[in-house]
Prior knowledge:
The chain is mostly helical and 260 residues long. The protein contains eight helices and two strands; from the N terminus they run ααββαααααα. Helix 4 runs antiparallel to helix 5 and helix 7 runs antiparallel to helix 8. The protein has helices at 8-11, 27-40, 103-108, 122-146, 151-171, 173-214, 225-232, 238-259, and strands at 73-76, 79-82. It is 55% helix and 3% strand. The chain has a two-stranded antiparallel sheet with strand order 1-2. 4% of the residues are buried. Among the domains are: 2-69, no CATH class; 103-171; 218-260. The radius of gyration is 40 Å and the shape is flat.
Amino acid sequence: MADQQPTQSSLASTFPDPPPFWQDFTPEKISRIEELRKAAGAGVDAGATVARIPDVPGDLVNLQPPAEPQDGRWRCFGDLYTLKDELPSLEEQGIERLIPGGPEHEQQAQPSSVTDGPHTDRALVLKRLAKSLLLNFLELTGVLGANPGQAEEKIGDIRTILINVHHALNEYRPHQARQSLIDLMQGQLDRTRAETAAVRAATDKARSVLEGLGSIDVPAGGVPPAAAAMAAGGLAGKELEEAALRAEREKWAAIDAEFA
Length: 260
């Protein structure tokens, strides 16, 4: 197993090789691990699978998922990750802090200063860093023209400024996420209120139409007054039916006009 451990350079390369334990996934070992899983899951509900098998043989260790990291950290492609994703401080990264907000600064902060206290003006801090970055770049061009061998120090200063800029932006991400959530919820609330107002308006309009229809006098026999008058004048049969249909169309036209 020791000779299968990948080197740090192979893990962090641009196109890393596949992990060496792929050679353990042979048909024979896969069938063996499946039999062990069936035996371990005999007392488990049907359809359930056992993630990890205790006391598995050494040659089958790589065929089951790895155990959860005990310290909450793991390495992937040469980079270290943690279960609790937190922004590391500049001091933990070994970078000189050029922006307020460090542990020592919080103890010595003066609330009267623009860049001190819990409510730091980050826009002002970023503007100062941007001006400092431009100045250092101008100095770098001068150093490269006079003595290129001394440009390494100035390049390091520019790198420190850029890392501080990125760190200041990343510290603002939680506030950005909260504000984005507030805007999203406010938009949903506005849409719900608009839909509720539209439903209430349609309800009021329908109620007024129904009240208007309820105020229409209908004879007990179900024959409209116009049709009754025509019948009294000597109209009968088909003409009387057409008159009744015409009166019904007029009613529906009035209803459509109300809802239009």
